Amino acid sequence: MERTRNTRLEGVVQELGLSQRQLAAHFRAVAAEHGATELQSVAQPYIARWIAGAPVEGRAPSILAETLSRGLGRLVTLADIGLAADTELEPPAWSDDPLTTLVTLGSKDMVEIDRRRLLTNSVYSVAALALPEDRWFERATDRAQARRPLSSYMVTAQDVDDVREMAAIFSRRDQKRGGRAGRAALVAYLRTDVAELLSGRFLSEDTRRAMTSAAAELAYLAGWTAFDGREHPLAQRWLTIATNLAEEAGDAPLAGHVLRAMAHQAVDLGQPHQAVQLAEASLSSRRYARACWRERSLLGVVHARGLAAAGEKKAAAAALLRAEQDLGRASDGDDEPNRVFFYTEASLAHETAAALRDLGDLQGAEKQFNRSVRTRRAQFVRTHSVTLGYLGAVQAQQGHLDIACDTWSQALDAMTGVQSGRAKETVVQMRRALSPFRNRAGSRAAELDARARSMLSQA
Known about the structure:
This protein is mostly helical. Helix content is about 70%, strand content about 0%. The chain folds into four domains: about 1-85; about 90-250, no CATH class; about 250-375, Serine Threonine Protein Phosphatase 5, Tetratricopeptide repeat (Alpha Horseshoe), CATH 1.25.40.10; about 380-459, no CATH class. It has a two-stranded parallel ribbon. The longest helix has 24 residues, at about 205-230.
């Protein structure tokens, strides 16, 4: 089979000015830093074959991009060296360099038509949920300190404050309008401004950690908004990047927060055992012990969700009790990160209800969903609409169709202006539940189904 010469890679290697033998030596050194022992045999003939068009497989593409980035003093992406797949996303790897992956994934996530094509050809990877041993995460700060700056810009505390301020803006927009609102701006900011800051120089180790933590929170938001938009392959990759960045920052509670999100995604996608493992990792001693009470409760209630989905009734009940107790210890005067501003009694009740529903306790689930609706703050429109959708579903499952129709009508009212794949999914489930009744002309169910159909056609 005739190969097409990789002229992009060839051009970047020529720009670097090293011989292929020297480049291979640098490549092996970077691979060793990442524990990629399978790449220690890479020598000059490999570089020659890759330039000639031979496939670059496994972890080699990301290691090669990082090696070239370090040599040139600027960020080199997989697209720059002709190794980015145009129509699919590779499964995330914990060993990938988060900065290189951030820019590469960000470029793929930018354009709507390209993102849809990627999602059509990509899958959520269950295998990629397997976590490295905790010692690997604990060495993340050492790996980050060894990374050479790619620009001469000196990052300041004001830069960190600016990134944190943007994270707060995007987070509040997500809670109000849903994950699809503002995603393009968020990803563009990440792959340009934030990537440039991460590539710069730092006055101190504290500044490096603070900036990396702020970047991790934005990457988490990119993942969470993709999750809310039901773009699960993208979400998984962003959340993997966010976890790596949080660990590079030495921000164990933030890493736990992101792993909790990955567990939540796994529950929703019918992977309860993987969800439990991810949630347990989020609750590891260093992550849980350093988190505030509100965040501890959030980690715990998602753990309960995983246990409930896995059928572990006793363990789920105990986890729910601990989550309730942890939230009870939180107070308005606590020093809390911005990322938990949304988590209140209403959030706990929503997740508790979902756990009870998965355990088959529909009455208990209805009570807790009602508690969530009753205590929800007005600005959290997206989650409120999802809660109402879930509440209507458990009411219908108990045979209370008239009450369910009232609840679903409120849900449709609340969804006006919300751009959320999860909210949309509750409408799909609503129509499925109403299907036996939609042919009864003039009935409440038929009217509601017509309204739901109209909303979906406009989404």
